[in-house]
Design brief:
The complex is a heterotrimer of chains A (362), B (287) and C (235). With 362 residues, chain A is mainly alpha-helical. Chain A folds into two domains: 230 residues, no CATH class; 76 residues, no CATH class. In chain A, 70% of the residues lie in helices and 3% in strands. Chain A is built from 16 helices and four strands. In chain A, strands 1-4 form a two-stranded antiparallel ribbon. In chain A, strands 2-3 form a two-stranded antiparallel ribbon. In chain B, a hairpin with a 4-residue loop joins strand 1 and strand 2. Chain B has a single domain, classed as ABC transporter involved in vitamin B12 uptake, BtuC (Orthogonal Bundle), CATH 1.10.3470. Chain B has 287 residues and is an all-alpha fold. Chain B has a two-stranded antiparallel ribbon with strand order 1-2. Chain B contains eleven helices and two strands. In chain C, helix 3 packs parallel to helix 6. The radius of gyration of chain C is 17 Å and the shape is globular. A six-stranded mixed beta sheet of chain C has the order 6-7-8-3-9-10, sandwiched between helices. With 235 residues, chain C is an alpha/beta fold. Chain C has nine helices and ten strands. Classes of the chains: A mainly alpha (362), B mainly alpha (287), C alpha/beta (235). Chains A and B meet through helix 5, helix 13 and helix 15 of A and helix 3, helix 4, helix 9 and helix 11 of B.
Amino acid sequence: MNTPASRTPYRVETRTRTSSIAGFTAIAVVVLLVVLPAFASRSLIQDLFFILTMLTLAQFWNLLAGYGGLVSVGQQAFVGIGAYALFSTVILWGLDPVPAILLGGLAALVLAVPFGFFAFRLQGAYFAIGTWVLAEVARLVVAQWKAVGGGTGTSLPRSATESIIFTSEIATLFGVRASAARDILAYWLALVLAIVAIGGIYWLLRSKRGLALAAVRDNPQAARSVGVDAQRVKWFVFLVAALGTGLTGALIYMQKARISPDAAFSLNDWTAYVIFIVVIGGIGTIEGPIVGVLVFFALQALLAQYGAWYLMVLGVIGIGVMLLAPRGLWGSFSDRTGIQLFPIRRRLVVGALTPKTPSREE
Amino acid sequence: MNWIDTIVQGVLLGGLYALFASGLSLVFGIMRLVNLAHGDLIVLGAYLILLIVSLLGLSPFVAAMVALPLMFALGYGLQKFVLNRVLGEDILPPLLVTFGISIVVQNALLQGASADTQRLPAGDIGVASLNLGIVNIGVLPLLTFGSAVGVILILNHVFYRTALGRAFRATSDDATTASLMGIRPRAVFAQATGIAMMIVTIAALYLGLRASFDPAVGPARLIYAFEAVIIGGLGSLWGTLAGGVIIGLAQTIGAAINPEWQILAGHVAFLLVLLVKPRGLFPRAFD
Amino acid sequence: MALLSTHGLTAHYGQFQALFGVDVTLDAGECVAIIGANGAGKTTLMRSISGVLRNESKSIRYRDLPIGSLAADEVMQRGIAMVPEGRRLFPSLTVEENLLIGAQVRKGQGPWTLEAIYELFPILKERRKNAGTALSGGQQQMVAIGRALMSNPDVLLCDEISLGLAPVVIRDIYNALPRIRAGDAAMIIVEQDIGQALKVADRVYCMMEGRVTLTGTPQALSREAIHNAYFGAAA
């Protein structure tokens, strides 16, 4: 081996031409979304808020289950804790709700430590139900907390919601009422959170840690033999997902301004729907949850009025996708076309050399 | 407060939880499948018994007998046509599919039977009790506990004394080698889920006789069942009974202190056992 | 007409091709040995015939019917039993249960009963209540052979039955083979121990890199021919 590494005509790349085009499109979409409140109706902003927050939750669940192999059905614990941290700091300490969102994320992160301590004692499918039990414990404990309304819940005080920072500026800027300005603020925050989540997860997966993550998911034994500490990688993913889910939960309930333990720790709203979004769109891809959340929103708009039928349809579609196209809509599309908007796989790019056909030397 | 009474009630409640758990334990033991719809299937069983009671005017006990073969067929079909397709190395597909089934069953019941609470007519047996001087023991809780013990005795007999049980254990050990013995693992799995659904039917009978139920109570039953299985140690049916008793005791004692703490106390007991003995009280020697 | 035959059999593990058009035949009552180095494709061939690996239907024929696409349980029910590589006893079954499960689905016509197996390998009778995996390697191999015999198969596939065993134990097991052959089953034995294989087999196939490189009776094959077929001709 006397060729120094710097002179080898190979590069390791993850970027593709499609992904570059997708990058520019993404920037355009983001710019459009940022300026949207100037001309969009309040109900559209509210819908987009819902889509963006569900997308963020889905990205973090996908990070856990799709990339980390940790199937949690207890993520509602972090939504609930994040939300309750926001409510309690606003109500009890008189904090402004926007900085309180950060405390929501922090609270979820702190809670994730004992959670992980228990849940990681369980393997595979039992990990799933274990996280669910823990979420139930969190719900039952919070329901005992009388200062934030106990089992029946509470609302953010008017004094707090009316004086949220930036809302008066937004109201003046767009010439809207304070309540609409609050929605716009929440929407922008949701947009920031979604972009940071997608960008952060993409960056994470392309980093050295992402490689370790893929190794652990695909073959824990082999990963250990090349020096990847599986337990540490899993902890890292678990904590990141808890932080992101907690921030999102706090933001969702800042916008709702009314909370109860049953709603904030709802398995259906914050985990079942999220799993559906990821599965339909395509688990283990960043594009999947984006596709999934759009399908989910469309189905909800069409069918939500039918109540139980709507949920049955969601369940049947989820089962059908798992049986017939387990890689989801985006996964199947990507398999067929080879298109990846967020390529993570590393490709060896041969520089100056023309690749020659390998010949057998025997 | 009468402590002896509380403890007796708790132990007997554990019988119900052991019934919830035995089917889950059986299926996991044979095919490493955790059925997230287990609790909802128990509730479905209760509605099926209720339907038979009201259609044919039978007693719930006779109606449960009628429901047994139907539930076996449901379990067999569910495994054969759905779950067998997703079994494999990856735990995600079976988890997500059973989660989907859970949502479908819950909402189908909601659509078909409304959210109103229901109860199976227990008749005289529902209020009968034995006076043992220091405690009054309800006949129905006693019957529940006896049924749990009976179910576990029968399951252990099937498992360790019959050819079917031999095939169950062999397939659980090594499905490929079992197929070299002429055993079809998928058929074994379907039979196992069928049997699990018969246990579910018995659990459903007592669920409906002892308390009111509605389409939404399934997930909580799954969680109690899961806790009992983990506390007992995977694969040990007597351990599952012990786990059920621990959850039952914790809940009853918790409720005696403060009615709002009933469910929480059960979960806390589970977490404590998980802390001290992560593999359960009676772990299997190999896995 | 051959009892069992493969026709241009190929096998893949994902991208990797393990067999390249293998033709092997087995006549009724015959004992055929397949020899070859590690990775020659012997075990893949056994796994294909037994149905653990699925193939094209017509690539394997048995009693003049195509069986290549059948599942392992269907192949076994037609009378082809296998002693798998590594013995693969069921750890949660006792020795006796391990034997009984061999005849649970198919109990063909023939001499093999629990008593007959205990007569063939008396040590197993002593240890019949033990867990299968509590036995020594040689005893486990006896259980695995007995388990396959219990169904009174017409074809017995033995995959690496001497692998990892002490020479004296190998001798004991091979001493039992003539008595097993007296029970009418045709046999295919896969072996790395050429000496043992040549002693018991009527015919030998030598495999290398997924192909049959040599075939013939043990008497007709020279040491040198086998050596070349085994390791490739010296360049």
